[in-house]
Amino acid sequence: MASIVVNLPCNVGAIKGLDCANYVGLKPSVNHNFVCVRPQSKACNRRRLLIVRASETCDGPMRKMGLSDEECEAAVVAGNVPQAPPVPPKRAPPAGTPVVPALPLHRRPRRNRKSPAVRAAFQETILTPANFVYPLFIHEGEEDTPIGAMPGCYRLGWRHGLVEEVSKARDVGVNSVVLFPKVPDALKSPTGVEAYNDNGLVPRAIRLLKDKYPDLVIYTDVALDPYSSDGHDGIVREDGVIMNDETVHQLCKQAVSQARAGADIVSPSDMMDGRVGAIRAALDAEGFHHVSIMSYTAKYASSFYGPFREALESNPRFGDKKTYQMNPANYREALVEAREDESEGADILLVKPGLPYLDIIRLLRDNSPLPIAAYQVSGEYSMIKAGGVLKMIEEERVMMESLMCLRRAGADIILTYFALQAARCLCGEKR
């Protein structure tokens, strides 16, 4: 229970003819939150002590004094100034603290970090659910199948589980999703023709979601690896070379098929040369001028993709992807890719992976006016999840910090498997 101690001269009661015994100018309170303490000696008879307690059990607002503005001002002019609560005492340091003169500092940055309210006022980077794009794995099955390497993630049945997961995301402000299909092995081929089947898994899922949620923003993945019997992002020649221009031809048909189904943003993730310009021309030729392209501009040949490939069962049948994905040791090369994608008509530039490549995100942010996307990939997600399960880290705090770091580095949007969980945290929902 908090108390406010006020010393007032007795002649305050002269205002409006109120007697000090009647709570020194205050109206009596039926809640007895005001107590007038009577002096016990003649020496104290000239002053009486008014103690105002803010009771926790008070069932209404504290009663006012009932004085007009003029009467309150007159009391102050007459010298009868009511006392505010006392200045808080200076906190004592622990025993043994050295006594030293204050450092002659003109600027102390800690002043802007001294309380939660001050820190919030000067926060430079804001993270909201609108910044998230939720990657969702889909398959032909009826049931949602858990993904062992990605705790909390599932291959969602496109008819039911997908719609339910999107509904949960929309409830907490996440209104953008990107779809990744687990294609039946029987439909995979060396040239990935299933990628542009208008009645394939992805086009069907797009149409279903757009029918249910017309304002949902749907991103798609444009690449052949989920549809390829070789597991590569492009057509593989006999000697193992990934064919560039022939692959781009297939990607254009895939992008048009996705746009025809209702995709808002197509996302070529294959890293073939010239594919952004070719896809832009193909979309425009079919009248899809409104469909955007988010280019995987700086997609590195990273070891952080392992859990994702398990989710889609799309590991390369042989070799690796280093002849088309970027070398993790390279920095300047990202600028080469960004300039090409910009000139070919990309609307968004993406960096993948995210957290290990914050310098690349900042590089593109500082050198391009286009929106920058970051993909917090499966390996990043699974490491945080594993660390949380083992009690080595606080999962929720690390999750939110990692997402904030991606935003601080310059990402406008973040593709993250944490989208639903993080949005719930931002909305204050209990887990």
UniProtKB/TrEMBL annotation:
Q: What is its EC number?
A: 4.2.1.24
According to its UniProt record, in which pathway does this protein act?
Porphyrin-containing compound metabolism; protoporphyrin-IX biosynthesis; coproporphyrinogen-III from 5-aminolevulinate: step 1/4
Which cofactors does it use? Answer: Mg(2+)
Question: What residue spans carry the region label Disordered?
Answer: 83-103
Q: Which reaction does it catalyse?
A: 2 5-aminolevulinate = porphobilinogen + 2 H2O + H(+)
UniProt GO molecular function:
porphobilinogen synthase activity; zinc ion binding
Gene Ontology cellular-component terms for this entry are:
chloroplast; cytosol
| A Pfam family the protein falls into | ALAD
Q: Give start-end positions of Pro residues composition bias.
A: 83-96
Q: Which controlled-vocabulary keywords does the entry list?
A: Allosteric enzyme, Chlorophyll biosynthesis, Chloroplast, Heme biosynthesis, Lyase, Magnesium, Metal-binding, Plastid, Porphyrin biosynthesis, Transit peptide
Which compartments is it annotated to reside in? Plastid, Chloroplast
Instruction: Please give the chief subcellular localization of this protein.
Output: plastid
According to its UniProt entry, the protein's GO biological process terms are: chlorophyll biosynthetic process; protoporphyrinogen IX biosynthetic process
Please state what class of enzyme this protein is: lyase
Q: Which InterPro entries match?
A: ALAD, ALAD_AS, Aldolase_TIM
The subunit field of the Swiss-Prot or TrEMBL record says:
Homooctamer.
Sequence similarity: Belongs to the ALAD family.
The family database entries (NCBIfam families) matched by this protein are listed as: PRK09283.1
Which PANTHER family did the record assign? DELTA-AMINOLEVULINIC ACID DEHYDRATASE
The free-text function statement in the UniProt record for this protein reads: Catalyzes an early step in the biosynthesis of tetrapyrroles. Binds two molecules of 5-aminolevulinate per subunit, each at a distinct site, and catalyzes their condensation to form porphobilinogen.
Please give the name of this protein. Answer: Delta-aminolevulinic acid dehydratase
Q: Which gene encodes it?
A: HemB
